């Protein structure tokens, strides 16, 4: 496998009730209950960009607001490999998967601040608050292990 990993950040955005924001991929609009249709906000780190800056940029781009504060950073870079059928197609065909730095953030805004309609080509078409324990079952199979790690390691911020 010669292709590199794409450097990326990801956000577990917790509301005041300890629920986490998940969003439905716009390219999978019929995936209401299906694994892989819902995910956490995430995105690439620009060359030379600090991951703590990138996470706020990605929130702004993907959900229309960065009204949040970092409450924890996962100590490890978490990686996943794309399944063989997606290598050379997904992620612009340039990467084998992603190497991700994950952050837990406290949402400081109101639900009305979350705006998926600000981007002319939005990544997501719906969002909701979910229990942290739901994350693994929402994830596409090749991301499920990362979502299990996140659900375990950030459980202290979640609703019980």
UniProtKB/TrEMBL annotation:
Which molecular function GO terms apply here? bis(5'-adenosyl)-pentaphosphatase activity; guanosine-3',5'-bis(diphosphate) 3'-diphosphatase activity
Q: Which Gene3D superfamilies does the record associate with it?
A: Nucleoside Triphosphate Pyrophosphohydrolase
On the tree of life, the source organism's domain of life is Bacteria
Sequence motif Nudix box, location on chain: 43-64
Question: Which cofactor names does the annotation list?
Answer: Mg(2+); a divalent metal cation
Which EC numbers characterise this protein's activity in its record? Answer: 3.6.1.-
Keywords attached to this Swiss-Prot or TrEMBL record, sorted alphabetically, are:
Hydrolase
Identify the InterPro entries for this entry.
NUDIX_hydrolase-like_dom_sf (IPR015797), NUDIX_hydrolase_CS (IPR020084), NUDIX_hydrolase_dom (IPR000086), RppH (IPR022927)
Q: Name one GO biological process term.
A: nucleoside phosphate metabolic process
- Where is the Nudix hydrolase domain positioned along the sequence? 4-152
Q: Which PANTHER family match?
A: NUDIX HYDROLASE 26, CHLOROPLASTIC, UDP/ADP-SUGAR PYROPHOSPHATASE
- Per its database record, what is this protein's job? Accelerates the degradation of transcripts by removing pyrophosphate from the 5'-end of triphosphorylated RNA, leading to a more labile monophosphorylated state that can stimulate subsequent ribonuclease cleavage.
In which family does this protein belong, per the annotation? Answer: Belongs to the Nudix hydrolase family. RppH subfamily.
Q: What is this protein called?
A: RNA pyrophosphohydrolase
Question: Which species expresses this protein natively?
Answer: Roseicella aerolata
């Amino acid at each position: 496998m010669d292709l590199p990993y794409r450097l990326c950040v990801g956000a577990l955005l917790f509301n005041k009730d300890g629920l986490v924001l998940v969003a439905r991929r716009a390219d999978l609009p019929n995936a209401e209950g299906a694994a892989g249709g819902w995910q956490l906000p995430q995105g690439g780190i620009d060359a030379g960009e600090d991951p703590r800056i990138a996470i706020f940029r990605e929130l702004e781009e993907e959900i229309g607001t960065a009204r949040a504060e970092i409450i924890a950073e996962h100590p490890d870079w978490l990686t996943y490999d794309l399944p063989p059928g997606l290598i050379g197609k997904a992620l612009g065909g340039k990467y084998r998967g992603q190497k991700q730095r994950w952050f837990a953030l406290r949402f400081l805004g109101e639900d009305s601040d979350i705006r998926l309609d600000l981007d002319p080509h939005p990544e997501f078409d719906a969002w909701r608050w979910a229990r942290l324990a739901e994350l693994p079952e929402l994830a596409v199979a090749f991301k499920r292990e990362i979502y299990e790690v996140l659900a375990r390691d950030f459980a202290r911020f979640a609703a019980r």
